[in-house]
Amino acid sequence: MENRINQFVQAEFDKTLANFNAMAADAGLREQIARAVAICVEALRAGRKILFCGNGGSAADAQHWAGELVSRFYYDRPGLPAIALTTDTSILTAIGNDYGYDYTFARQVEALGQAGDVLVAISTSGRSKNVLRALDVAEQKGIKVIGFTGASGGDMAGRCEVCFKVPSTETPRIQEGHEFIGHLLCALIESEIFPR
Ligand SMILES: O=C(CO)[C@@H](O)[C@H](O)[C@H](O)[C@H](O)COP(=O)(O)O
Ligand SMILES: [Zn+2]
């Protein structure tokens, strides 16, 4: 194999493993996970739902995790109410065209969100304007926000009930951390609400 490729792959493994080791050693992260699960379980038991938003790779996370709650994660059980605000191209293009891209999620939170719901807001920079505007509406409507960001938290820091700040400044590393934590949340929500 070409040496350049070999070195690149090794360096990527090193960064990813360092990122996951830092997360595994962080006791605060485990407490945050427990809090986020409790927030979601309380909402779902009260008949409320979970909304997800994010751009690019984070849009993929939003859809991925909503799918796991509505369908299944580890085992068969009734579906849980979750909606990714990233999937309906008619809604997204109408809002983008009529009001501007910054409003793509806020308008949907306004239309679909109810007090007691949970908004999972995913942004590696913590600075995507459409995600920040969704936070504005969530705050106005009494919707709790669980944030997923990078190390700094960007402009989402201090605006979320729980904010998972993956300890990296590199977008792919942050996204890998998000993916892992999102899977933990799906698994734990499933097993809390439908214990086997
Ligand atoms: O997946 C990736 C990079 O790994 C990209 O698509 C990335 O998600 C996009 O550039 C997003 O627009 C970044 O937005 P954000 O995470 O800063 O909110
Ligand atoms: Zn998954």
TrEMBL record:
**Record's subcellular location:** Cytoplasm
> What Pfam families does the record tag this protein with?
SIS_2
Does the keyword field hold Isomerase? yes
**What positions does the entry give for substrate binding?**
N55, G56, G57, E68, N97, D98, S123, T124, S125, S128, Q175
Molecular function per GO: carbohydrate derivative binding; D-sedoheptulose 7-phosphate isomerase activity; zinc ion binding
Q: Pinpoint the SIS domain residues.
A: 40-196
Q: According to its UniProt record, which reaction does this protein catalyse?
A: 2 D-sedoheptulose 7-phosphate = D-glycero-alpha-D-manno-heptose 7-phosphate + D-glycero-beta-D-manno-heptose 7-phosphate
Q: How is the cofactor bound?
A: Binds 1 zinc ion per subunit.
Main location per the UniProt record: cytoplasm
Pathway it acts in?
Carbohydrate biosynthesis; D-glycero-D-manno-heptose 7-phosphate biosynthesis; D-glycero-alpha-D-manno-heptose 7-phosphate and D-glycero-beta-D-manno-heptose 7-phosphate from sedoheptulose 7-phosphate: step 1/1
Superkingdom of the source species: Bacteria
Task: Give the protein's cofactors.
Answer: Zn(2+)
Q: Key word Magnesium present in the record?
A: no
EC number(s) per UniProt?
Answer: 5.3.1.28
User: Which GO biological process annotations does it have?
Assistant: carbohydrate metabolic process; D-glycero-D-manno-heptose 7-phosphate biosynthetic process
What UniProt keywords are attached to this protein's entry?
Answer: Carbohydrate metabolism, Cytoplasm, Isomerase, Metal-binding, Zinc
Family of this protein: Belongs to the SIS family. GmhA subfamily.
| PANTHER family hit by this protein | DNAA INITIATOR-ASSOCIATING PROTEIN DIAA, SEDOHEPTULOSE 7-PHOSPHATE ISOMERASE / DNAA INITIATOR-ASSOCIATING FACTOR FOR REPLICATION INITIATION
Misc remark: The reaction produces a racemic mixture of D-glycero-alpha-D-manno-heptose 7-phosphate and D-glycero-beta-D-manno-heptose 7-phosphate.
Q: What does this protein do?
A: Catalyzes the isomerization of sedoheptulose 7-phosphate in D-glycero-D-manno-heptose 7-phosphate.
Q: Which HAMAP family match?
A: GmhA
On subunit structure and binding partners, the annotation says:
Homotetramer.
This one is known as Phosphoheptose isomerase
What species is given as this protein's source?
Tepidiphilus thermophilus
Q: Which gene specifies this protein's sequence?
A: gmhA
